[in-house]
Design goal:
Blueprint lengths: L25 H26 L8 H11 L9 H12 L7 H12 L4 E6 L4 E6 L4 H14 L5 E11 L6 E10 L10 E4 L2 E4 L11
Parallel strand pairs: 2-3
Antiparallel strand pairs: 1-2, 3-4, 5-6
Helix pairs in contact: 2-3, 3-5
């Protein structure tokens, strides 16, 4: 993502703009020196205003304004980069969508390789597994999908996190499945709820254990 913008200002020598007979006068020398400093500050201000026209390069104050307009509440541990991505994802939410366009949105939000999507067309189930994105971005993806996907689809969010035990030479993979049902249909026969968790037996063999 673009970090900063640079405007190619032409260098200006204020002393060179004066007639030769003023260029040796001490008062004008000092006046042009201070004016040169103010000119540089003006260049910086123009660059800042131009940068604030774009979410990718705006400063934190302007980014906060975008978040307020969109009803976004940044978390204390969010980096500026994550906040920019979240704002851009809201602005880029355009309906209706297709599966290819949704893949582009998820790549822009979560990064390629950090998610997997599967659509069970006969049963109207949309499943997405988060494998490596930041937690705050997975929350944003969940919110985006709930707002964008057709109302007749059930949505399954699969959150996969890897934990490594410090005293053992192995890693434990832990997965959590969260189902969002969009209507009042009875739960499918392959879904049960216990300890506040939803267990599915037909989504790539992923189970929860009271997470």
């Amino acid at each position: 993502m673009v970090k900063s913008l640079t405007i190619p200002f032409e260098p200006i020598d204020l002393m060179g703009l004066l007639p030769p007979y003023f260029q040796e006068v001490k008062d004008y020398i000092e006046l042009m020196r201070t004016e040169q400093i103010e000119l540089e500050k003006l260049k910086q201000n123009i660059t800042r205003v131009y940068s604030n026209l774009f979410v990718q390069t705006c400063d934190e104050s302007t980014l906060h304004d975008h978040e307020q307009w969109l009803g976004i509440f940044a978390q204390p541990d969010d980096t500026l980069e994550i906040r920019r991505i979240r704002v851009l994802s809201r602005y880029n939410t355009v309906l209706p969508i297709t599966l290819p366009s949704l893949r582009v949105m998820l790549n822009n939000l979560l990064g390629a390789g950090n998610w997997e999507v599967e659509v069970d067309y006969p049963n109207y189930i949309f499943s997405i597994k988060f494998t490596g994105a930041a937690t705050s971005l997975t929350y944003e993806a969940e919110n985006m999908l709930i707002q964008m996907l057709p109302a007749h689809l059930d949505i399954a969010f699969i959150i996969e996190r890897k934990y490594e035990a410090s005293n053992y030479q192995f890693g434990l993979m832990e997965s959590q499945v969260k189902r969002i049902y969009t209507d009042s249909r009875p739960l499918p026969s392959d879904v049960e709820i216990y300890l506040g968790s939803v267990v599915t037996k037909n989504i790539k063999g992923v189970y929860t254990d009271g997470l």
